[in-house]
Design brief:
- The protein is an alpha+beta fold and 1089 residues long.
- The protein folds into 5 domains: 157 residues, Lamin Tail domain (Immunoglobulin-like, Sandwich), CATH 2.60.40; 187 residues, Jelly Rolls; 226 residues, no CATH class; 82 residues, no CATH class; 142 residues, Lamin Tail domain (Immunoglobulin-like, Sandwich), CATH 2.60.40.1260.
- Helix content is 15%, strand content 33%.
- The protein is built from 13 helices and 73 strands.
- Helix 7 packs across helix 9 and helix 10 packs antiparallel against helix 12.
- The N and C termini lie far apart (113 Å).
């Protein structure tokens, strides 16, 4: 009996002991590069540790970041060995297997031709022709020259004849093909300078008779890129499979393979034979990486672990963590906790830290100084030591130690400092540029600071010619200086890498740079108004471009073109010329730009990345899905676009105005490598799901390399290109063709008219003119004949419109171009639009193509109504779609005062279009009901200046007499900022610009009120980014007159209540605005006069 009781005690106690011996040992909630998962992503991770001497089965255990067993993530049937670790990626991916096949091997690989071919090989024997491909989601090697890929061999003997198509590690950034033509000979080597972008690496070998073709497939592309063609004598059978090698004997290379396809059939990795010729133990298995259904908070939280009996086994609370710093137990399994830097996933927790050293505090700010400086550090903690460098290198404990004596600076110097303390995580390096010279730069200045090893080293340097085509990123500090250069207006840490492709070539010694915000460098976003005319101030990336194909020429073509594109409401990268210094040395004139990617689209258009689709060129996927776009192309190709009902389906999927504006702009700019290249387009269900186009990369446009003044409509004559094919089919629709022609006529007479383009060109040229001599001195040949280049662009601008319009007349066999003569006798009553352009925007006369229907829309002012067009041949309708046969039409629109003007009841009374950094309320507007009765505003529509930005006011919404209602961009942030305000609704999915127009329409789409405000004088500039709103002075004031608006006297404004200076009135009479909605509709009927 005692024996039975003892055994029972052991069983019960043993189970409890087994449960308690598995603990949460280490957590990294801000992983940057400490550990990459099989998707080549830096997911957060949790390390479990078995502190006991026996393995523990974890089937049905659970883990979660909340104390909720029912919702916790369930571990699969896996065992953690004694004194062993298990990594769980807290990635929110919720999976236990991806189907990836893991091979690990070491030794020196097939690259070393004078030695035996050290590699690990998984193969089949095949005969005859074949076509084999494989995906490589992940590859990691102990040395730069490790390889993973496909291999074809004559035999398994050393130095056999073979062909291999390989990927290198991502940092080396290229594909590598090897071909040994004869047994024992050195293999021929070929490099493909294409970016390695795990997990999207694909390689392929194809044999046809005695020829073997090697291919690679670029990320999200459709087309295999032929990399090499080799003569390979036909044999009855060969060895064919996947291979991995390192080039360092003492370290393992690790590769993951997926989707092995041979002759169209998927091959199971389990069917492959193994051959290993390395001096390391190798592993092969289907990889089971564990990913939880939750992620970790960088700010800190608690993680809970339960056994399969729902008993809480362990929990670990961790604080806010910086990038790649972990938090856990020290020593392993104990109840003392520490920080670990570097972190130690799957290894013993070592070198504990219990605090963070303070960053060095400089006594003098960076910038331009006219005299010598004596620099000190203001830190006072005796236990901390500050080490610094004066040569731009990263400081460490072997650098200069600051011992209290001032650092004398008598010439331009980069000072970098770092604080160390015992048992503490070292501080981040703080870097500052001190320019001891007179500031002569009128342009903004960007000072970049980076360790010279990361610039020029053979293996690490991004500017070393051996590495310029590789996808390598280094850490950098950058400072941004506006007009006053005595201090930086913005500074921070960032990632830096080379940007572009062609411009990396040796012919461009001045490289383009990409500055990237990442939390691992301290800043997840750049928050600063780098571009004053943008409505947003948040950026994930900034570019410092060398002007690409315009380097050595005008140095402004793309920036100038994008400024015009933005005026046309196209997506484009904003531009600002700037001067760049690298490590205190003048690097020259660069173009500060936005990077067009998913982050940019998400920020600019206030759409979530999870609902964003972004594509470039020939449907190469950048974000989201391309399925809907491919379905659109398929629909267009296989349906009759001249059928109005079929074309209506296209209207539901395409923003036709964006497409026409993009088409007109690209044709006008004359870019020779478009549309096959340099196009991006996007859609989002957060918007309306329609596809829109982005204009970018116009360096070789505007008459740069070719005489494109007279070469215009090539796109409409080449049906082999994806974009051209789509446009040719769409233009089978007569009404769409009319819309396109009117787009040319209207845009050429407004935004692309010489009266607008030439002054813009001259203003940009004037900005950079004084920097040209310094640029030429720094980079001989970069601006050889600058003034003549500017003159050449002017000639292009003078001739281009006439050339394109002539091409259109010839191509479509049109009668000619007519003009409208306007005699607006009572302009106080209203105005009108042609082609959806306001009359006042026409700079070169109001032009139209004869016999092509145009849209005329009368726009009466408040209190007026339209009477007639003052032309007996035209009907008295305020909105017409009509074709003019004559070369000239005279219009005299007539308006009259309404006999019984309606009372304007709901008005815009207050606008917060840009709060301060401290007031995180997001944008909002306040409505006021001036009437004596409650107004039901159900299904009314709020818009800004973009018709696609729509906020539908919910059913059942009303505003009581003399009361307010706030419409807010973000209900949560508004409520947090104004907890006492209850009369608000939201959230609208777009932000307000600076400047912008706010508009309110009733449920019948009648314009109720609108305000076109600005952040510049005569509008009150004190409401721009200060935290003070714009307030209307009186309810009965004209709220389109800037004199009637002022910046609130109360910080945060007065949402939902009386304005800070407003006088309440009982009687309010004003004329209502009536808006006749008549936008160009390519499907409407028309008449010819």
């Amino acid at each position: 009996m005692r024996k039975f009781v003892f055994i029972l005690f052991l069983l019960l106690f043993g189970f409890s002991l087994a449960s308690s011996q598995v603990i949460i040992n280490e957590i990294c909630s801000s992983n940057a590069e400490s550990l990459l998962d099989e998707d080549y992503e830096a997911s957060d991770w949790i390390e479990l540790y078995n502190s006991g001497y026996s393995p523990v089965r974890l089937k049905d255990w659970r883990i979660y970041d909340k104390n909720n067993f029912e919702k916790a993530w369930v571990l699969p049937d896996t065992t953690i060995g004694a004194k062993s670790y298990l990594i769980l990626f807290a990635s929110d991916k919720n999976r236990i297997s991806s189907g990836n096949y893991l091979i690990e091997a070491g030794g020196q690989g097939a690259v070393e031709w004078a030695k035996d071919d050290y590699f690990h090989y998984e193969y089949l024997k095949v005969a005859g022709d074949f076509d084999i491909s494989v995906k490589i989601p992940f590859f990691q090697s102990g040395f730069f020259f490790g390889l993973a890929g496909l291999m074809l061999r004559d035999s398994l003997t050393a130095r056999s004849k073979y062909i291999s198509m390989n990927s290198k590690i991502q940092r080396r950034g290229s594909y590598f093909c090897l071909f040994r033509e004869e047994q024992g000979k050195a293999p021929n080597r070929s490099h493909a300078v294409k970016p390695i972008q795990f997990p999207n690496v694909f390689v392929r070998l194809k044999r046809e008779n005695d020829t073997v073709l090697a291919y690679l497939l670029l990320k999200n592309s459709f087309d295999w890129l032929n990399f090499g063609k080799f003569h390979y004598d036909n044999k009855d059978s060969v060895y064919l499979g996947i291979a991995i090698s390192g080039t360092e004997n003492g370290k393992l290379s690790k590769g993951l393979f997926k989707d092995l396809v041979l002759n169209g059939d998927t091959i199971s990795f389990a069917k492959l034979n193994s051959f290993n010729n390395t001096n390391q133990i190798f592993y092969k298995r289907f990889y089971k990486e564990l990913h939880t259904n939750f992620s970790l908070s960088k700010e800190g939280e608690t993680v809970f672990l339960w056994n399969n009996k729902a008993e809480l086994v362990d929990s670990l609370s961790f604080p806010e963590l910086k990038a790649d710093i972990s938090y856990g137990r020290y020593p392993n399994g104990e109840n003392e906790f520490a920080y670990f830097y570097p972190s130690t996933p799957s290894f013993e927790n070592a070198n504990p830290c219990y605090a963070f050293a303070e960053e060095p505090e400089f006594s003098i700010e960076a910038g331009w100084h006219s005299q010598e400086l004596s620099l000190t550090f203001l830190n006072s903690k005796l236990e901390e030591k500050i080490y610094y460098t004066l040569n731009s290198s990263e400081p460490n404990e072997n650098s200069f130690l600051f011992e209290g004596n001032p650092i004398e600076i008598d010439k331009t110097t980069i000072v970098r400092a770092k604080t160390y303390a015992e048992n503490s995580v070292p501080s981040q390096t703080v870097s500052k540029s001190y320019f001891i010279e007179e500031n002569t730069h009128k342009l903004p200045v960007v000072s970049v600071i980076v360790d010279s090893i990361d610039l020029w080293d053979r293996d690490r340097g991004i500017m070393n010619e051996a590495n310029v085509f590789k996808k390598m990123e280094v850490e950098a500090d950058f400072e941004f200086y506006e007009k006053d250069k005595s201090y930086p207006n913005f500074s921070g840490k960032a990632g830096m890498k080379l940007h572009g492709f062609t411009s990396r070539a040796p012919k461009y010694p001045q490289k383009s740079l990409s500055i990237i915000a990442k939390s691992r460098y301290a800043l997840s976003k750049f928050e600063y108004p780098f571009f004053k005319d943008n409505s947003y101030e948040t950026y994930d990336k900034l570019l410092l471009r060398n002007a690409g194909g315009d380097w050595g020429k005008a140095f402004l073509r793309d920036g100038f073109a994008c400024k015009l594109a933005l005026q046309m409401n196209l997506g484009a990268s904003n531009y600002r010329p700037a001067v760049v210094y690298i490590n205190g040395e003048y690097y020259g004139l660069q173009n500060l730009r936005e990077r067009i990617d998913d982050d940019h689209i998400s920020i600019k258009y206030a759409v979530s990345k999870k609902n964003l689709n972004l594509i470039e060129d020939k449907a190469v996927l950048l974000c989201g899905s391309r399925d809907s776009y491919l379905e659109l192309l398929d629909f267009i190709e296989n349906n009759d676009m001249s059928n109005p009902n079929q074309f209506k389906q296209v209207e539901k999927l395409v923003d036709l105005k964006s497409l026409i504006n993009y088409f007109v702009f690209r044709i006008w700019s004359g870019i020779p490598d478009w549309p096959e290249r340099n196009q991006k387009y996007w859609s989002s269900t957060d918007f309306d799901g329609k596809w829109r186009w982005v204009a970018y990369d116009s360096d070789i446009a505007l008459g740069n390399n070719f005489n494109y003044i007279n070469y215009s409509l090539f796109v409409l004559k080449d049906s082999t290109k994806m974009f051209s094919k789509m446009m040719i089919k769409l233009l089978e629709n007569e009404q769409f063709k009319h819309y396109m022609l009117n787009g040319f006529a209207g845009i050429f007479a407004t935004k692309l008219h010489k009266s607008n383009t030439i002054p813009l060109l001259e203003s940009i040229a004037e900005q950079i003119k004084d920097e040209i001599p310094s640029q030429q001195k720094r980079w001989e040949g970069s601006v050889l004949d600058w003034e003549n280049e500017i003159h050449a662009i002017k000639e292009f601008l003078l001739q281009r419109n006439y050339s394109v319009l002539s091409n259109l007349l010839t191509h479509y066999k049109l009668k000619g171009i007519g003009k409208i003569v306007c005699k607006l006798s009572n302009i106080e009553g209203g105005d009108f639009k042609l082609h959806d352009f306001e009359r006042k925007d026409f700079l070169g006369g109001m032009k139209y193509f004869q016999c092509i229907p145009v849209t005329l829309e009368a726009v009466p002012k408040q209190g007026y109504e339209f009477v007639s067009w003052g032309n007996p041949l035209l009907p008295d309708s305020s909105c017409l779609r009509i074709a003019f046969d004559s070369a000239e039409v005279v219009l005299n629109p007539i308006f009259k005062l309404k006999e019984n003007p309606e009372e304007r009841t709901i008005i815009f009374n207050e606008i917060m279009y840009k709060s301060s950094k401290d007031l995180k309320c997001d944008d909002w507007v306040e409505l006021y009901n001036t009437a004596e009765e409650t107004i039901d505003i159900s299904n009314w529509i709020f818009k800004d200046d973009d018709d696609s930005h729509i906020f539908l006011i919910p059913e059942g919404t009303s505003v009581k007499p003399k009361e307010y209602l706030v419409l807010c961009e973000n209900e949560e942030s508004f409520s947090n900022s104004y907890p006492n305000v209850k009369n608000y609704i939201g959230s609208f999915s777009f932000g307000l610009g600076r400047p912008d127009i706010v508009r309110l329409f009733d449920a019948s789409n009648n314009l109720i009120d609108s305000v076109a405000y600005s952040h510049l004088s005569p509008w009150d500039e004190n409401a721009d980014g200060t935290g003070f709103s714009l307030e209307l002075d009186k309810f009965n004031s004209d709220n389109n007159n800037p004199a009637n608006w002022y910046a609130s006297h109360i910080y945060g404004g007065t949402p939902g209540e009386l304005n800070s200076e407003q006088v309440s009135v009982q009687e309010f009479e004003a004329s209502s605005g009536i808006h006749f909605s008549c936008y160009p509709n390519p499907l409407s009927d028309y008449s010819t006069i």
